[in-house]
Specification:
With about 230 residues, the protein is an alpha/beta fold. It has one domain: Spore Coat Polysaccharide Biosynthesis Protein SpsA, Chain A (Alpha-Beta Complex). Helix content is about 30%, strand content about 15%. The strands form two sheets. A six-stranded mixed β-sheet has the order 1-6-3-7-9-10, covered by helices on one side. A hairpin with a 5-residue loop joins strand 4 and strand 5. The longest helix has 14 residues. It is globular.
Length: about 230
Amino acid sequence: MKCGYSNLTTRVISEKDSGMYDALAKGLKAATGDIVSYLNAGDLYSPHALEIVFDIFERLPVKWLTGFTVLYNELNHVVGVWLPFRYRRNLIQCGFYDQRLPFIQQESTFWSRDLLELIDYNQLKSYKFAGDHYLWQKFAEKTDLFIVEAWLGGWKIHSGQISEEIDAYRGEMQLFSKKPSILDYATAFYDRLHFVLPNDLKKRLNQKTLIRFDFNRQKYVLPGIGDNS
């Protein structure tokens, strides 16, 4: 796995496109690193996000990772932080997150480059609102979304965002979401109750996909898989 900045090369491409997801498709196709993510204008990673993400991807069986849900104001102040409970693959496929359940924060989410093999870039660039959820649905076909108990990035709330058009976002998301079963609805109801629990209870109830920092060993660990050496 490659990590380092000594030979960092930055490419800036400025050209006409048909929308943000057309531009994103071009960027993802050009990505060469082992770990991939993207930020929209104005959003920010935390100062240690890349260090945390690299450490976890190098040591733990993780291909897709997110962190605390974090909100910024227009002054870049952190004004909201909470720990997600869990993100289930079947509920991602149903389009339940950002509808019946809290959203998956794109600004805090990182993934292994091999997951990009699942993406149809022509389909991605056709979206105007819910391209991020298209990525999540494709990734969920192959792997779990893990949560690390850490600040990785955040979403800046300001006027004029595409996210303000929530009905259009949800309508587009339903174009590629599978039809939920009765069990999916029941699971979503169960999880919705757990998203508002105190953090200690969330940690006890999600041993499978929640990565925690072990202060005795001074490293991030995944309790559900043993030693995590």
